[in-house]
Write a structure and sequence with these properties.
The complex is a heterodimer.
Chain A (H helix, E strand, L loop, with lengths): L5 H4 L3 H7 L1 H12 L9 H18 L5 H23 L2 H20 L1 H12 L2 H7 L6 H28 L6 H29 L3 H17 L12 H9 L1 H14 L4 H28 L2
Helix pairs in contact in A: 4-9, 5-6, 5-9, 6-9, 6-13, 7-10, 7-11, 9-10, 10-13, 10-14, 13-14
Chain B lengths: L14 E12 L2 E12 L3 E5 L6 H8 L7 E6 L2 E2 L4 H7 E4 L11 H11 L4 H14 L15 H12 L6 E5 L7 H17 L2 E6 L2 H7 L2 E6 L2 E6 L1 H8 L2 E7 L5 H12 L3 E3 L5 E6 L2 H13 L4 E7 L3 H14 L5 E2 L3
Parallel strand pairs in B: 3-8, 3-9, 6-7, 7-8, 10-15
Antiparallel strand pairs in B: 1-2, 1-4, 4-5, 9-10, 11-13, 11-14, 12-13
Helix pairs in contact in B: 3-4, 5-6, 9-10
Classes of the chains: A mainly alpha, B alpha/beta.
The complex binds adenosine-5'-diphosphate and magnesium ion.
Chain lengths: 290, 334
Amino acid sequence: MTNPSLQEQIHTDTENRSNNHSTDDSLDQVITNYIPHSRANGIKTSLTFAWRALLKIKYVPEQLMDATIFPIMFLLMFTYLFGGAIAGSTSDYLQFLLPGILVQTIVTITMYTGIELNNDIRKGIFDRFRSLPIWRPSVLVGALLVDTVRYSLAASIMIGLGLVLGFRPDGGFLGVLIAMALLLIFAFSLSWIWTTLGMIMRTEKALMGVSMMVMFPLTFVSNVFVDPETLPPWLQTVVEVNPISLVVTGIRGSMHGFVTLEDISWVLLWSAIIIVIFAPLTMYLYQKKK
Amino acid sequence: MNRTNTKNDVDRDDLAIEASGLVKKFGEKRAVDGIDLKVRRGTVYGFLGPNGAGKTTTIRMLATLLKIDSGSAKILGHDLVQETEAVRSRISLTGQFASVDEDLTGLENLIFIARLLGCSRRQAKERANDLLNAFGLEEAAKTQVKKYSGGMKRRIDIAASIVITPDILFLDEPTTGLDPRSRNQVWDIVRALVKHGTTVLLTTQYLDEADQLADRIAVIDKGKIIAEGTSGQLKASIGSGRLHVRLLNPDLRPQAQQILADELNTSIQLLSDPTALSALVSNADRVAYALGELARSNITVTDFSLGQPSLDEVFLTLTERQTDSEGKTQEVQS
Ligand SMILES: Nc1ncnc2c1ncn2[C@@H]1O[C@H](COP(=O)(O)OP(=O)(O)O)[C@@H](O)[C@H]1O
Ligand SMILES: [Mg+2]
């Protein structure tokens, strides 16, 4: 049945039906069989969407590369290539670099939310979701839940590797936890930008192009890799207003125990601003799609 | 949510879909240009039309996926715009392109939809397996959908649409590109659903398919319904088919043309093959007489056939007539 030969395929109508009596009966049964069910609430449907996203990781494990292999490569490369030149020693540089590169990695992988969504939209499955009697945002909430898992995974791998290489957070365990929380909040907010773009952009490639164009300068012209004090004054100004820098400052400070309330507030403020703008925008586009 | 009709339903409640003046514009283009529709419960309604006619757009509006620009519609008594949620809980859609997740297996897809619709884990699994069995997909249950054949994809797609048997099922070109066997399987599914009481609205580019499945057919072109009726009514209105005749002697063709024209009371086309003639006939009974008349005149016929009118012919006939009647929909009478 899985692979009908050509000969089988050209069975006539009557032959086909007389051969399929058992199927006919089970067909009638399955159609007549009424399943008692109650409308699923938003939490259940969101978790169901999350379950689907997890299954997809199982089938397309390459998805996780960006969350695992790349950060490891980046961390090793930058620590050992530039450590000596930038900070005098690789160990000193690692203390400075790790929080920054952590932000860069997580920020970069936030765009996958948009890509997945864009894929769904271009295929017919999105139509099915939209015609189901379910709480509409659950498609997005489910995806974002799984992304949080993905971000946590990437962050844990990097911090773990960092510890092995000699990263010593002065802020201790609590500091690292606060840093992680800030990072997840910011990543969650950023995801909404990508979901918005995922709704608008025609192709996955276009979306990737745009995200690279935005994320590349944003993460490099920041305090991720170097202390801005070494930069020319005009560039320093740019770096200081870059939200990525503010996030890096908050996370670096938390990890090393010199974070201020102001640093934390900046991260939360930026996250809130992004969510307030892009979450409703995404939902609006979602309702109006086509 | 009660799907059984009470006995004393009034006439209006008998309609699964009632739409009037549906319009959808994409920029300047009127993709759907004033469609009226009445679909009785428990019947199959066929939308027949070429690519770009507006079939998908109409279905997407009725399935709450596309905002209607003007007009109104009631789905099982619920207003399409005002009571979207109620409409969604009664309908199901199988889109023109695969609307399942091709990365997941057939089983996972069905469990996923069942869970979204509120089934418990156990129920979902049971239902998924029952559906896979009924659709002849049990062996492919644990295979990713992207590895399925075209026919299998279509079936899993429809299975996903009837996880909870819907009151109305929209099927957008369910058999386009399928081999005959797969097409028959899809037809069987549709018939079983209708037997159960589900109303099916399907679109197709094949006259044959509409003929086989649909209780009523709307022929749609350029966003307008240009004819509506049962398949019998439609065929009667455009003639029962095309007669092809081939002669032994091409010299006798003009004579044969005259005889056929007289007998069939219609215009006869001369084809590029010098021995061949063809005609649209409205009454198949006359064909026998006409052929007999050729024989009596000593014109030898080497070959003849009386085919169903092709979709092209249906369109040609209907669109010609439409321009005659200044764009008014044909109400075909039998
Ligand atoms: N999203 C869209 N934007 C612009 N034009 C569209 C869109 N969808 C469909 N159309 C146009 O509307 C017309 C009807 O399309 P459609 O409903 O898909 O036809 P069918 O399903 O009968 O092939 C076509 O000319 C098509 O190009
Ligand atoms: Mg279409």
